[in-house]
Structure to design on (257 residues):
């Protein structure tokens, strides 16, 4: 099942194929049911060559959650993410889609999702997205203080909302994940020491999307790459829809936000 209102027959077929492939990835659902935790992840795009590349990191084999899998930088939303100052706001279309089917919706909450993706990207890769600021930057206590120290303020105008996905019920961990994308031009500073044998990500790779999809990755990560390809084909148009993937009646569905 998928919401394909307004889609061409080809687009409807692609959507149906994606939900079918996701449904086939469903694993053991015998765990106590948990409320999904809000999370955010960021796909960085390098367009410096004729074939664009995306950044993925391989998780440590000792992780209990998705050991050894290739993923995008990301993690849970923190309260401080809603308090961080920004150079500019998310585009209105992204805000509207981020707030669809969300409790206590607000533009501040939408910005918090995107800011979490930026913060997690820095914490896991050392890549800091934003723009230099000559003025002092007010930051909440915690990880965001690194941005103030570097004189970098996040710029949400460089961020695109790609897709949302909710982990099926009765899995050991559940997330309500928002997938964002940004060009490497948004990287204001790079730092070493964030990736390695004793870190959350043991390596980073830049690969064309078609090659990246051959890596050992979660099913939803591969689907997010396909959704990114669609948006890139539209010229990263703000009018391009963003889907929500979730489980309904033991099957995944794709709803257009």
């Amino acid at each position: 099942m998928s919401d394909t209102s307004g889609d061409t027959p080809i687009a409807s077929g692609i959507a149906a194929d994606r939900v079918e492939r996701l449904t086939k990835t469903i694993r053991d659902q015998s765990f106590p049911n948990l409320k999904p935790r809000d999370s955010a992840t960021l796909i960085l795009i390098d367009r410096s060559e004729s074939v664009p590349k995306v950044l993925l990191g391989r998780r440590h084999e000792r992780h209990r959650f998705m050991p050894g899998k290739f993923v995008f930088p990301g993690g849970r939303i923190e309260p401080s993410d809603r308090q961080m100052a920004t150079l500019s706001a998310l585009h209105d279309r992204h805000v509207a889609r981020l707030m669809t089917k969300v409790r206590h919706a607000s533009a501040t909450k939408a910005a918090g999702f995107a800011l979490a993706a930026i913060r997690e990207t820095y914490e896991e890769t050392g890549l800091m997205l934003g723009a230099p600021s000559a003025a002092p930057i007010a930051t909440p206590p915690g990880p965001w203080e690194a941005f103030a120290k570097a004189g970098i303020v996040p710029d949400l105008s460089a961020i695109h909302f790609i897709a949302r996905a909710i982990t099926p019920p009765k899995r050991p961990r559940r997330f309500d994940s928002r997938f964002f994308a940004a060009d490497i031009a948004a990287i204001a500073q790079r730092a070493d020491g964030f990736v390695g044998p004793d870190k959350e990500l043991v390596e980073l790779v830049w690969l064309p999307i078609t090659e990246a999809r051959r890596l050992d990755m979660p099913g939803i990560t591969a689907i997010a790459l396909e959704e990114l390809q669609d948006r890139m084909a539209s010229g990263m148009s703000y009018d391009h829809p963003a889907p929500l993937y979730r489980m309904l009646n033991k099957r995944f569905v794709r709803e257009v936000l």
Q: What stands out?
A: The chain has one domain: 9-256. The domain at 9-256 is CATH 3.90.79.10 (Nucleoside Triphosphate Pyrophosphohydrolase).
